[in-house]
């Protein structure tokens, strides 16, 4: 029998995470995304077959939490989509009863395909953190990239996310995965941007690309392009680039004023600067910090470099 609990793993985005896979034996999903790392599966389902009883999962969770003392977050995921697990509501209610004694938060990673169902929304509202995927804001793109079951459309998903965000009191994350020739274009990004700006409360928007072997023949976007994409979103959105592959070859150099200008347009993390720019740019960053032109601010649980208050509104 395969255990449902895995890890803990250290994640920059969520801290030390203990995973709970609600479908450990079999991929069960209502999407068939081009980029899926679990392999292609044209047979999509809207509920899990042979779900594991929640009391067994709870025992495994408690055993692991007793063993691993430094866990920050219990992450509910699945070999597929976790909201297809029929006893999710009961499970999260029972986990919420015990979580305070272990000092942990709960997180669920969902593809958003079921967010518009009232009973799914009710369950997701019980998590401390919810990460919802939204790769496309238009129907054509959504059907092409995420290939949902019949009956799931992107307008229902967007309405479901908006409705959820109005009620939710926890940390709401949106994740967008970009693929060349699919959704990494200005028109699609403009639609995504327009939608994200309607959400009343958003903790963070994570943007990335495929990093492990995908199910189908798709192309990732490179880091420089992700960086350019991040600038196409409104600067009020808390965007985090999640891909941090070292750029091969000669890295770009920014002078102090160029770096300050860039950071004014889009706050950067330490990883962004190390990935995109040369060592001399890193030294310019240190000079700007010493001169109190740049400071750090934690947004969405991640430390960003931002312009200090007194220069924020000056034209650079
Ligand atoms: S939602 Fe996740 S598990 Fe399902 S097909 Fe897409 S990438 Fe794979």
Fold blueprint:
Blueprint: E1 5-11, E2 15-21, H1 54-67, E3 73-77, H2 88-102, E4 105-110, H3 118-124, E5 129-133, H4 139-145, H5 154-167, E6 171-178, H6 186-196, E7 204-209, H7 223-232, E8 239-241, H8 256-265, H9 270-276, H10 279-290, E9 294-299, E10 302-307, H11 309-312
Parallel strand pairs: 2-3, 3-4, 4-5, 5-6, 6-7, 7-8
Antiparallel strand pairs: 1-2, 9-10
Helix pairs in contact: 1-2
The chain binds iron/sulfur cluster (SF4).
Give an overview of the whole structure:
The chain is of the alpha/beta class and 316 residues long. The protein folds into two domains: 5-245, Aldolase class I (TIM Barrel); 247-316, Arc Repressor Mutant, subunit A, CATH 1.10.10. It has helices at residues 54-67, 88-102, 118-124, 139-145, 154-167, 186-196, 223-232, 256-265, 270-276, 279-290, 309-312, and strands at 5-11, 15-21, 73-77, 105-110, 129-133, 171-178, 204-209, 239-241, 294-299, 302-307. It has an eight-stranded mixed beta sheet, covered by helices on one side. A two-stranded antiparallel ribbon has the order 9-10. Helix 1 (54-67) packs parallel to helix 2. The longest helix is centred in the first third of the chain and has 15 residues, at 88-102. The N and C termini lie far apart (61 Å). Iron/sulfur cluster (SF4) binds at residues 29, 31-33, 36, 38, 80-81, 111.
